[in-house]
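The material for today's practical consists of a large collection of protein records. There is nothing in a record beyond a sequence line and a structure line. Backbone structure tokens are a discrete shorthand for how the chain folds in space. Nothing more is needed to start thinking about how sequence determines fold. As an example, a complete record with its sequence and its structure tokens follows.
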Amino acid sequence: MPLRLTTAGESHGPRLTAILEGIPAGLTVDPAFVARELARRQHGYGRGGRMKIEKDAALFEGGVRGGRTLGTPIAIGIVNTDFANWTGVMDPFTVDPVQASAKRLTRPRPGHADLAGGMKFGARDLRDVLERASARESAARVAAGAVCKLLLSAGGIRVASGVLSVGAVLDTQTPRRFAALEKVRDDSPLRAVDARLEPAMVAAVDEARSRGETLGGSILVAATGVPPGLGSYASWDRKLDGRLGQALLSVPAVKAVELGAAIEASRGPGSAAHDEIERGRDGALRRRTNRAGGLEAGVTNGEDLVAVAYMKPISTLARGLDSVDLETGEASRAAYERSDVTAVPACGVILEAMLAFVLADALLELTGGDRLEDVLARLAAHRERVHRYPA
């Protein structure tokens, strides 16, 4: 694949790092835009105390000069301010035995990586697992995704998201399409697609907090301006729906992804599942509907790309769940780490970053090119060809 993304760092370690390789030379990087994306990830009603400590800032440490990409790997660092309070526990080389013992985790949380990760790597202190499995890692992805968004924007492609549900408060009226996301306010408590539902969502979060519970939800994430022909039907591992599924399901706590109207389509006949084809007034072929969510057979078809992701409730509950203390072997309550009641709004921002990464990767796969001007010229030529197809 043209793009590669690697992140490193622990939740309370010195810093997070993202390495994004494959972005063409000549892309203007707007640091204010990247900062806004990181701030969006920290926003949302129901977030925990960590968001009051950190003010994430992207430090571009390679691959950018004078505000323009060089075509070489882009290195982005994000300092963990809270590391100052965890130096004796999380320093890469010098760990204070007393402080580390006080933060030792031996009571795994159901639903988290604690136990499975401990079994995989043989960790006796599950902090070795949870520090990397923490959703804090997603800040690095959002920073890298912001660069991918800038590349897509140069090609006329936009990505957005909005919350459809928090707990049992569900938006059943809003059409699942990109246009619905135009009205989402990033400064609202929960970034709901239908702002009228936000008071009920806020009340649900308050009620969950009072009971020591957490809440999940669902998020609409979409892209517009996507040209036909991204992805492939030829090989299973190049199908764009599969690549999108992997990327979106990699977001912390996301357990299911629906592309287009897949669930509804599965319950009815084929005539109500597919998007009939017609020729528009401009002479181009188009679909009358978008039940497929912009994807057919692993290839984009020119309609908006639409998905709904379902986030489970966060695994760290203040009330705790039944577990076993690995040191004593006795039944116990799961450990409690500082956590959010819900992070559904933030999840949407991370989903946008992953969608942008996959689309940017597929775009560069189509256009090739080490220089942005070549990428944009080839994209323009491709759009013109498909507009005239089959002429």
User: Anything to note?
Assistant: The chain has one domain: 4-388. The longest strand covers residues 158-166.
